[in-house]
Design a protein that fits this description.
Layout (H helix, E strand, L loop, with lengths): L1 H18 L5 E5 L5 E8 L3 E7 L2 E8 L4 E9 L3 E2 L3 H8 L11 E12 L2 E11 L2 E17 L4 E13 L12 E14 L2
Antiparallel strand pairs: 1-4, 1-11, 2-3, 2-11, 3-6, 4-5, 5-7, 7-8, 8-9, 9-10, 10-11
């Protein structure tokens, strides 16, 4: 009987959660499913890739009202290109200078919709103490119940392109590319 009551309570909780408006809410960025990765030209020979392994932040999103806010802090020291010696150089004073600039920040200023679909998020990126406008183009968004964690959440894939020289990251120019392509995968869940 106790098991049947727990099962019924679980079904009722699921029905309540599913009855909530799709996506409307405030969420915490899930650091185990959120990564900012980048691509950059290396001497014209290849495209080098890397990612930042640690992030935190929050998302407020209401698709019905077509509004939201996102605030993401990326741990600059979590940079990972797959080669420890290169990562140590990139974390140093001549590149990301993570001792003086521990976080890379993105804060939204506007959510852009095309009809009911979120297509972009405008905001500001702060890197090396320089704050510049950045638009994240959104490839997909899903807000729903995660049946594994039993939490309501939102996820998205976003891309952007920036010039690192705009942030004072000039080392290696012009041999190492100025244009950096970003790919961001994010998941956020109700606290």
């Amino acid at each position: 009987m106790f098991t049947a009551a727990r099962h019924l309570a679980g079904i009722l909780l699921l029905c309540i959660v599913l009855a909530l408006p799709a996506g409307a809410g405030t969420y915490d960025i899930d650091p185990t499913h959120t990564y900012a990765s980048f691509e950059i030209d290396h001497l014209g020979f290849s495209t080098q890739r890397g990612q930042f392994n640690r992030s935190r932040g929050s998302l407020r999103y209401d698709p019905a009202q077509q509004q939201g806010e996102v605030d993401i802090h990326i741990d600059a020291a979590s940079l990972d290109t797959g080669l420890a010696a290169r990562d140590d150089i990139l974390r140093g004073e001549d590149w990301f200078n993570v001792a003086a600039n521990p976080d890379i920040l993105f804060r939204s200023t506007a959510f852009i919709f095309d009809g009911p679909r979120l297509i972009a998020i405008d905001g500001h990126l702060t890197l090396l103490g320089q704050r510049r406008p950045l638009r994240l183009d959104i490839q997909r968004v899903k807000c729903s119940l995660n049946f594994v964690s039993r939490k309501r959440g939102c996820g998205a894939d976003a891309t952007a392109t920036l010039r690192r020289s705009d942030f004072g990251l000039n080392n290696g120019l012009p041999f190492i590319g100025d244009e950096v392509r970003l790919r961001i995968q994010v998941e956020a869940y109700a606290p």
